Amino acid sequence: MTRWLIVLVIWILGLGAAALTVGLARAWWFVAAVLLTLAVVGTRDLLQRRHSLLRNYPILGHARFLLEKIRPEIQQYFIESSTDGTPFDRETRDLVYSRAKGTLAEEPFGTERDVHAIGYEFMTHSLRARTAPSEPPRVRLGGPDCLRPYDIALLNVSAMSFGALSGNAIEALNAGAARGGFAHDTGEGAISPYHRKHGGDLIWEIGSAYFGCRTRDGRFDASAFAELARGEQVKAISIKLSQGAKPGLGGILPGAKVSREIAETRGLPLGETVVSPPAHTAFRTPNELVDFIIELRALSGGKPVGFKLCVGSRVEFLAICKAMRRRDVTADFVIVDGSEGGTGAGPVEFEDNMGMPLTEGLMLVHNALTGTGLRDRIKIGASGKVASAADIVKRIIQGADFTMSARAMMFAVGCIQAQICHTNRCPVGVTTQDPERTRALDVPDKAARVFRFQKSTVASAQQMVASMGLDSFDQLTPDMLNRRVDGVTTETYAELYEWLMPGELLDDPPASWLSDWIDADSAHF
Predict the structure, then answer these.
(1) Structural contact between residues 206 and 185, judged by C-beta atoms closer than 8 angstroms
(2) How many CB atoms lie within 10 A of CB 251?
(3) Do 293 and 305 meet the contact criterion of CB atoms below 8 Å apart?
(4) Which of 100, 159, 162, 495 could potentially form a cystine with 453 if both were Cys, beta carbons 3.0 to 4.6 Å apart?
């Protein structure tokens, strides 16, 4: 309401100045012209639906767009210098914005990246380049114990809860997913009405607080889970063991964001900060985790069940592999969350210093499953700063089958990386429960942007693979991704890293894995 009052006051002052021009100095004409122009601009900003920032900050919001017209370095300084964390670089962010808006994502005068910098990566193209297929690929989630497999898209919406995101943001993401036929991970905050409104495919994430399927004392409620999990919209179940933003900690939702609607959705007290337990109570060991997977699969009617984690100890993951082999029961998928990812509020020390980056985590999980002979039964998802077609191709080379994107999807619904998500004062209505700010996010417009971003990014990834002379993503191999290791040398991932053969850990563990393989015990993490 305040923004409307401000614009109304400007209208009154402008009309008053115009009235004073009669019989007075001509200087009042200038004042009247300026005020009435601002009033017209402010009114237009409030009524338009394309830019959330202008709807919340009429007139003043144009300052940000003005910075975009001048030197990128100045824009970068003013927009990012006062923030912390690891925001996306300007080039990646602008790529997401352009694809979401449906504008051409091309840049004159070559790359802005330093191709001679240590760590620079590039893929090997081929003179046998091909035309990409018109249909996007799908990846089947569902091992031998799954009765209702799900064919997931190559790029999907990663876990972001209602609570961390506004209802309008969740609704826009799900509407985009429904239109594009890709999956929307609920995050650990339960299934809200905004997830249901447009019928997009859901991956229901079950965290340690069991929101949506919890007893009064915060433990897992099997009957409540079964009632929701058997719904047609839920396509798969993901058990959250840990997350990249704060591995070893439960989810955090500041009390300022716990509205009455969120409290009712999660079964929580109104206005109290929510800190999920750091570990699950439904299981304590790898063997019990496998039992829990069996239980959830049965309760859901045979849907795919997997788990998500930010990789920490190799011994602990190998213990899970041993537990799955011991029972001859596997998860249908594993989502690897990189420590560089994460959209929620978390302690800076955890964000910067805990957890394995996605590259190393992916290769560890892929090698562990391959070495234990389980890889053909379990699909791997990659989540953590996945924003471009190149990210998709690289992650599949490193061991993934499909990808999940959080921050890039937030950009698609209007996020400007203000990085004040935890304050409930998001300027564009993406990460706030303030209805005055949330109203700025126009659901139909932002849903279309989510759809366009996902579609064009997957299409570009398909063309990149075709440009490498391949027919499908299944043909990607580690020798097709190169990294600069010093000023004059580049090496492929096949040369840089160790890649296990199927069943190698069972038959003859290599020396580099032997100690961890011996220490891994399915009876404890």
Answers:
(1) no
(2) 27
(3) yes
(4) 100
Q: What is the pLDDT of residues 44-101, one digit of tens each?
A: 766 676 666 666 767 766 665 555 554 443 344 333 333 333 556 777 888 888 899 8
HEC string of 80-146? HCCCCCCCCCHHHHHHHHHHHHCCCCCCCCCCCCCCCCCCCEEECCCCCCCCCCCCCCEEEECCCCC
Asked whether the whole model's pTM tops 0.90, one would answer no
DSSP 162: B
In this predicted model, what pLDDT tens digit does every residue of 321-378 receive, in sequence order? 999 999 999 999 999 999 886 655 566 777 777 889 999 999 999 999 999 999 999 9
With beta carbons less than 8 A apart as the criterion, state whether 398 and 359 touch: yes
Supply 280's token pair. Answer: 């699950």
| CA 302 – CA 280 distance, rounded (Å) | 22
Position 360, amino acid = E
Give the C-alpha distances (Å, rounded to integers) separating 301 from 146, 227, 232, 329: 9, 10, 11, 16
Domain locations in the chain as residue ranges: 2-82, 138-459
Answer for the pair 367, 400: CB distance below 8 angstroms, yes or no.
Answer: no
